[in-house]
Design a protein that fits this description.
heterodimer; A: alpha/beta; seven-stranded mixed β-sheet; three-stranded antiparallel β-sheet; 35% helix; globular; B: alpha/beta; 37% helix
Chain lengths: 504, 461
C-alpha cells in the first residue's frame, strides 16, 4: 500500500524470525578482528603480567566471522521499532525526527576524534561549541549561565538539587524539604532523596494543575524549593505559575524547572521569565538528539544569576580579549564540583547546537507551534472515542484515558497500546501520569504530518470500535516480532545473561 | 526558511479551522500574557544544512588534538583504540540510534537482545554473574557502586583508594554532598594503595565500602586480595574500578573478591568523542542484584513460548519506587552498549586478548625507552604497570604537552591537569607539576613510539 502524503507507519517491515544470540552463532577458532601492524617486540603475557595478576583463560566471547556479525546485528535491527520507521507518540519523551545532518556533525573527525583530556589550547573548537550552546540554551530558557556536564535529564535534576543545597548552605540556611506535584516524573522524587532532601507531594486540582491552596499550606522556611514541569505531565500549562513562584520565593525557596516538556514553549515563554531559578533541559527531547534506544541523552542545567557561582566545573568560558586563546575553562568560585568524568556528552551537545543553528530562533518557535497544534488536533479528533480527563486546550501532549473502555468492555490502556503496535505506530505512554486512571499519554511531536496524525487517529478509533465490538484486544499484538512477553517470569527466574540460561 | 516540519500552509489553516482557532498564537492562550516573550529568540538566523555542516567542519579544524592529526598517547579513562568500519556501520543503524527505552518489548527485541548480549560480555569480563544495561560513564558507575555499597553495608564511611582517577574522585565528592557519605582518601605508596591497619577499625568509623582501581589510574596493579581481606575484617563492600581491556589479561575482579565491578566502557568501541557519550560498566555479585541501579534486561518467553527479552526487575527503578529509590538513573547508554556489544563481537575471544596484549607490549616498550632518557623518572617506583604509566620529566607537564603538540603528538595527560599543581593523595606536588600520564594502545606502532620518545627527549631540555 502506498502511503499518501508522507504517512509514517512501519508495520510491514519488522522481522518476525527469532535471532539466535551471538554466542549461539559462535564457532571456536573463527574470527574477524584485524589490527594495525605495529612492529612492536612480541613479548608474551608471561613477560608482561606478574603471575599473581595473570588471567589463566581468556575471557570467553563469541567467535564469529565479519559476515556473521553483520547478519546478526542487521537482523536484530529489523526487530527494533524506531522513529525512522514510524511515528512514536510516546508521551513525555518527545520522539521527534532526528535530522541526519546531526549524525554527520557528530561523526566529523575533528569532533569525534578529540581526546577529552586535551588542554584548552588544543581543543578550542570544542570549547567554542560549548560556549555557544550555553549561550543559546540561556537565551531559550531566560537564564544567566548553564552547565553542560549532566549526561541525562535525571543527572541534571540531581545537579540542580545539589545547586539548591549549595545555595542555601552558603547562606547558613539549613532546609530539609522539596515539594513536587503528584503528577511529577518518577525521577523527581528519586533525585530529591539523593540530593539529601525529603519529598513533600502536593496534589493537583480539578483542572490538572498545582493546587495553590494545598501548596501554600506546606510552604514554610524549611522548604528548599519546588520542582515543577511546565507544561506539566498532563500537557497543561500551569496558569498560576506567577503566584506559585511568588509564594515559593516568599519563604526563601527556589523554583526548579524540569525541562522534559520544554518543546511546547520554545520562543513563546521562558522558565526564567516565569520565575524559575534552576532549569534542566533534555537535549534528546527538545533539540532532537537521537534517543539511542534509551541513552545517550544530555541534561544541561541553567541557573539564575544568584546560582552561577555554584555551577559545576571546570566550565568552558570565552576568555577576555588579549588572552592567549579565545576559550578556556574555569572553576566557579563556590562550585559544587564535577558531575561528569569529563565535559558531558559532548557529541550530543554538538548535535543540539547544529539543530538549533538550522532552525534559528524563528524555527524553534515554529517547532513549538506545530508540536502544540498536532497535540490539540489529536485531542479534539479523539475526544469522541476516548475519555479526555482534562478537556481543555493542551500544550505539546494530551493525556487521554481508556477508563470508559475498561469499564464497558474490559479493554485496558495497555491493550490499546499493544494493539496500536500492529498499525505500525509505537504505543503512547501508558499509566502515566499516575493521577489519571488508564492513562494514554500522546505526544505526536511537530515532525509528524497531518496524514500521519490522521492515520494514528484512525487506528486509535478502530481500536476503540474493536473494543466495543468485543474483539479480544488482550491478545494483541500478533504481528510484532514477538507477542506479549511474560514479565513476571523474567523477574521471578532472572536470566540477565546468556550464561544464566542453564539448560533452557 | 529551512526546517524539518511537514505542515503546508493549507494544512495549517485546515488544522486551525478544525480547532476553531484563527491563529497559531491562540494555541498558547493558557500562557499569561505578561509572561510571554513578546519578541523572537535572540539566536542566529536559521541556516541551511550545508552551511551548518561547513561551520562545524571549521570548528573541528580548530581542535588541534584530533587523533587524525596528533598521535595520541593520552588515556586517563579514554583511549585511542581501533574501532573498525563494521562497528560504526552496525551500531550506527538508525533502528538502534532513533529508538527509545524499550517500554514496548514486542517491538524492541533488537535493542533488548543486543543489551542482553552486552550484559553477558560485561559479566564475563568482571567475573560476576550480573551486569546492568550500562550507566552514563565510569564516574557515574563509581558513584552508583558506592551508593549500592553504603545501602548494603548500612555504613556511610567510604575508603577510596587514591589510585581512583582524580576526576572520578571529584565526581564522588560532588554527589556525597547530597547523600552525606563520608569519603576517606587512602594514599598511595609507589603507586599502590596502602590500606590502614584493620585493627581498631570498627563501629561507626568502620568503612562500609572500599574502592580500588584495577589497574589504578597510574597503571599500577593493585593487590585486590589485600582489599578483600580488609573487607572481610570490617564487613565493607568491595567496589573495584576495572579497565575492560586490561581485564582480559588480568585475573577477574570477581575472582579476586569484588562485590561490585565498575568501569568506563569507552575502550569498547566508542570514539574518543571529547569525553562523551561514553558508558558506565556495572556488574554485581548475586547477593546485590536487588540493589542494582539502572536498567537490566532479562530473558523470558512470549505468550506462545518463544524466547523473548524484556527490561526486568523494574520494581528497583525510580519511576516505581519514587522517593524510596536508591538511584535516580532513568536511562542508560543503550547505543554505546550496542557499540560495545558489536566491538566485542568483532574482537571475539582472541581479539580482545590481542588488543590488551598489544597495549601491554607498547606500554612496556614506551616506558622503558622513556626511562632511558636523562631526567625522566618513574613516579610509581618498580610497581608493575599495564595500560598506562606516569613519569616525571624535567619540565612542567603542561609545557611538555604544548611542545609535543607542535611536533605532532598528544603526549599524554599533564598530571597537574588531573590532580592540580599541588598534587593530591595520589601524587605529591612536584611530581604532579612535572608528571605525565602516558597510555599506549594497540594502534601505536613502534615507529610512532620511537618518534615520540625522541621528540620528548628534545622538548624537555
Amino acid at each position: 500500500m502506498t502511503a499518501a502524503g508522507g504517512r509514517a507507519t512501519s508495520a510491514p517491515i519488522m522481522g518476525s524470525e527469532a535471532e539466535p544470540t551471538l554466542f549461539e552463532l559462535s564457532q571456536p577458532g573463527r574470527r574477524c578482528w584485524q589490527l594495525r601492524t605495529t612492529g612492536m617486540p612480541e613479548w608474551s603475557v608471561d613477560d608482561l603480567i606478574p603471575a599473581a595478576h595473570r588471567r589463566h583463560e581468556p575471557v570467553p566471547l563469541a567467535e564469529v566471522s565479519e559476515r556473521d556479525l553483520v547478519g546478526h546485528f542487521t537482523r536484530l535491527s529489523h526487530r527494533q521499532f524506531a522513529v525512522d520507521l514510524g511515528a512514536y507518540p510516546l508521551g513525555s519523551c518527545t520522539m521527534k525526527y532526528n535530522p541526519k545532518l546531526c549524525d554527520t556533525v557528530a561523526g566529523l573527525p575533528g569532533l569525534s576524534g578529540v581526546h577529552p583530556g586535551a588542554p584548552p589550547s588544543l581543543s578550542q573548537g570544542w570549547l567554542q561549541i560549548f560556549v555557544e550552546l550555553e549561550d543559546a540554551l540561556c537565551e531559550v530558557t531566560g537564564m544567566a549561565a548553564a552547565t553542560l556536564q549532566p549526561a541525562a535529564g535525571a543527572a541534571g535534576e540531581l545537579t540542580g538539587l545539589l545547586l539548591m543545597r549549595a545555595y542555601h548552605e552558603s547562606r547558613g540556611d539549613s532546609r530539609h524539604r522539596v515539594i513536587i506535584p503528584d503528577s511529577a516524573h518518577g525521577t523527581n522524587p528519586a533525585s530529591v532523596t539523593l540530593g539529601g532532601y525529603e519529598t513533600v507531594t502536593v496534589p493537583s486540582d480539578e483542572r490538572g494543575c498545582v493546587d495553590l491552596a494545598a501548596l501554600r499550606s506546606v510552604l514554610d522556611t524549611d522548604v528548599a524549593g519546588i520542582m515543577l514541569t511546565n507544561p506539566n505531565t498532563l500537557g497543561l500549562f500551569e496558569e498560576d505559575i506567577e503566584a506559585i513562584a511568588a509564594a515559593v520565593h516568599e519563604v526563601g525557596g527556589l523554583l526548579y524547572y524540569d525541562g522534559a516538556n520544554l518543546n511546547a514553549i520554545l520562543g513563546v515563554v521562558r522558565p526564567g521569565d516565569m520565575g524559575f531559578d534552576i532549569v534542566h533541559m533534555n537535549l534528546h527531547k527538545t533539540f532532537a538528539t537521537p534517543h539511542g534506544g534509551g541513552g545517550p541523552g544530555a541534561g544541561p542545567v541553567a541557573v539564575s544569576p544568584r546560582l552561577v557561582e555554584f555551577l559545576p566545573g571546570p566550565r568552558p568560558v570565552r576568555l577576555p580579549a588579549g588572552a592567549d586563546a579565545d576559550y578556556g575553562v574555569v572553576m566557579p568560585a563556590r562550585s559544587i564540583g564535577r558531575v561528569h568524568s569529563w565535559h558531558g556528552n559532548a557529541l550530543v551537545l554538538a548535535r543540539a547546537l547544529a539543530y538549533m543553528e538550522v532552525h534559528g530562533g524563528d524555527g524553534l518557535r515554529r517547532v513549538a507551534e506545530r508540536a502544540v497544534l498536532n497535540a490539540n488536533w489529536i485531542r479534539k479528533r479523539l475526544s469522541g472515542s476516548y475519555d479526555v480527563p482534562f478537556d481543555r486546550p493542551c500544550m505539546h501532549e494530551v493525556v487521554l484515558s481508556a477508563a470508559s473502555l475498561r469499564k464497558r468492555y474490559g479493554t485496558k490502556a495497555l491493550d490499546v497500546g499493544k494493539r496500536l503496535l500492529e498499525f505500525g505506530f509505537h504505543a503512547p505512554t501508558v499509566y502515566f501520569p499516575l493521577i489519571v486512571d488508564e492513562a494514554l499519554m500522546i505526544e505526536p511531536t511537530e515532525t509528524e504530518s497531518l496524514q500521519t496524525l490522521e492515520a494514528l487517529a484512525e487506528a486509535l478509533e478502530t481500536i476503540a470500535a474493536e473494543a466495543a465490538a468485543g474483539e479480544p484486544l488482550g491478545e494483541a499484538p500478533r504481528s510484532t516480532p514477538v507477542r506479549r512477553v511474560d514479565e513476571a517470569r523474567a523477574a521471578r527466574t532472572l536470566v540477565p545473561t546468556f550464561d544464566a540460561r542453564g539448560g533452557r | 526558511m529551512p526546517d524539518y516540519l511537514p505542515h503546508t500552509e493549507a494544512e495549517l489553516a485546515q488544522m486551525l479551522a478544525f480547532l476553531g482557532l484563527s491563529s497559531l498564537d491562540e494555541l498558547f492562550a493558557a500562557v499569561p500574557a505578561a509572561l510571554r516573550l513578546g519578541r523572537g529568540l535572540a539566536l542566529v538566523d536559521g541556516s541551511p544544512e550545508p552551511d551548518v555542516l561547513a561551520r562545524f567542519e571549521a570548528l573541528g579544524e580548530a581542535n588541534r588534538a584530533r587523533s587524525d592529526r596528533l598521535v595520541c598517547f593520552a588515556g586517563g579513562g579514554a583511549y585511542d583504540h581501533e574501532v573498525p568500519p563494521v562497528v560504526r556501520a552496525l551500531a550506527g543503524r538508525s533502528e538502534f540510534v532513533t529508538s527509545y527505552t524499550p517500554y514496548q518489548a514486542e517491538v524492541a527485541q533488537g535493542c533488548l537482545q543486543a543489551v542482553l548480549e552486552f550484559q553477558t560480555m560485561v559479566a564475563r569480563l568482571a567475573g560476576l554473574p550480573v551486569a546492568n544495561a550500562s550507566l552514563y560513564d565510569g564516574a557515574n558507575a563509581l558513584v552508583e557502586g558506592v551508593n549500592l555499597g553504603v545501602a548494603a553495608s548500612g555504613r556511610q564511611t567510604v575508603w577510596v583508594s587514591s589510585g581512583i582517577a582524580p576526576h572520578w574522585r571529584a565526581v564522588l565528592r560532588t554527589f556525597a554532598a547530597g547523600t552525606g557519605h563520608v569519603l576517606v582518601d587512602i594514599p598511595l605508596e609507589d603507586g599502590v594503595t596502602r590500606w590502614p591497619e584493620a585493627v581498631g577499625v570498627s563501629g561507626a568509623e568502620a568503612p562500609g565500602v572500599l574502592v580500588v582501581g584495577y589497574p589504578n589510574y597510574l597503571g599500577c596493579l593493585e593487590d585486590i586480595g589485600a582489599a578483600r581481606r580488609m573487607c572481610e575484617a570490617t564487613g565493607a563492600v568491595l567496589v573495584v574500578a576495572a579497565d575492560p581491556v586490561a581485564a582480559s589479561l588480568l585475573r577477574s575482579p570477581g575472582e579476586c573478591g569484588a562485590d561490585v565491578v565498575v568501569g568506563e566502557g569507552q575502550p569498547l568501541g566508542t570514539a574518543l568523542s571529547f569525553g562523551g557519550p561514553y558508558l558506565g560498566l556495572f556488574a554485581v555479585a548475586q547477593q546485590h542484584v536487588g540493589r542494582l541501579p539502572g536498567r537490566l534486561v532479562g530473558e523470558t518467553v512470549d505468550i506462545e513460548g518463544t524466547r523473548a527479552y524484556v527490561a526486568t526487575l523494574r520494581a528497583r527503578e525510580q519511576d516505581i519506587r519514587r522517593e524510596k529509590a536508591t538511584s535516580n538513573v532513568c536511562t542508560n547508554q543503550t547505543l554505546m552498549a550496542v557499540y560495545a556489544a558489536v566491538q566485542l563481537g568483532w574482537l571475539g575471544t582472541s581479539g580482545l586478548r590481542e588488543v590488551a596484549l598489544r597495549c601491554a607490549r607498547g606500554t612496556r616498550f614506551c616506558r622503558e625507552a622513556l626511562l632511558g632518557l636523562d631526567g625522566v623518572e618513574p613516579l610509581t617506583g618498580t610497581t608493575p604497570t599495564v595500560r598506562e604509566f606516569a613519569v616525571r620529566t624535567p619540565i612542567p607537564g603542561r609545557l611538555a604537552i604544548e611542545r609535543l603538540a607542535d611536533e605532532g603528538y598528544l603526549g599524554g595527560l599533564a598530571l597537574a591537569d588531573l590532580v592540580g599543581e599541588d598534587g593530591d593523595p595520589s601524587v605529591a606536588g612536584d611530581d604532579a607539576l612535572c608528571g605525565l600520564l602516558i597510555a599506549v594502545t594497540e594502534r601505536r606502532t613502534r615507529a610512532e613510539v620511537e618518534g615520540f620518545v625522541r621528540t620528548l627527549d628534545k622538548v624537555v631540555r
